[in-house]
Amino acid sequence: MYYTSCILLILIVVLAIGKKKEEENITKEKEVEEINFESKENIQLLRSENGQIEEVNLNYYLLCVVASEIPFKYEYEAIKAQTVVARTYLFNKIINSVEEQGDVCDDYRHCQAFTDIEELKVRWKNKGYTDQEIEEGINKIKRAIVETENQVITYNNEIINALFHASSPNRTENAKAIWSNIDIPYLKSVENVEDEYYENRNSCVEISYATFKSTLIDNGYILDLSKDEFLNIRINEYTESGRVKDISVGAYKIKAENLRTLFGIKSTDFKLEVNEETIKFNVLGYGHGVGLSQVGANTYAKAGSTYDEIIHHYYTDVEIVDGYDIQMKRGEI
Ligand SMILES: [Zn+2]
Predict the structure, then answer these.
(1) Is the pTM of this model over 0.70?
(2) In angstroms, what is the span from residue 67 Cα to ligand 1's centroid?
(3) CA spacing 20 to 30 A to 277: which of 49, 53, 97, 237?
(4) Ligand 1 midpoint to CA 214 (Å)
């Protein structure tokens, strides 16, 4: 009798747990279903791998871009800010017909990083994330896309060129300090606060005298570089935001932005150290430093800022417009 009641009790408990699990699963499935995610719009995506144009759903494009550009573990408001930025970036390309082929391409060096979500899932798994974490991460981005649907950033009623970068620990950079000296009123240097956890906050690139010299000669920046000239390399000028504008190499001035791309230096916020045989760049931050800083957005979000406050912080005097109809805009082109 005792055993029978025990078994009965265990059975009831097991059944109850089973039922609870079932309920949890139903609730979970429901949560996924509730994110009505597809946009009614498609876009033309140029695949750099094969040069083909692929038609993809607008919101699928945004999902892949946001998931490629920002860690899904970042704060939700930072992800929302990146989502509005990614949509604005895309719409600017479409409206101003920036691309030669298609609306946008998948190359991060030219447009925004775009990696298919299935490929990202494999990468995340390899990094040690669980299926549960990955699903939650993807849902977080989907929710951000749906919650900010049709929102874009404008300045003077025109869609902006929503540039962004990973990290600029002290200040962001003026667009004109880097590109063509043209003042872009909404891309001004602003104060920036960033958590110190970021893995690429500090980095260092050390190049030998021989490599430094030959790279600059091969790329047409200098004709020659004696050892004396090498040892006398100096920072020539800083930008208003305190980044390096250019350095003096012998009789030449070389733009820091060119050095950044030439030698894989993570940003132009660097200190120089020239030794007998090497030149060392001690670097702070990652990226060109213009527009939204992703690490900064995450830091502000942690401190309680909302996505619109984050956007207004990084883009000067802009508006976030709701209900932007890209189909209508396409019709006007
Ligand atoms: Zn492109």
Answers:
(1) yes
(2) 18
(3) 237
(4) 31
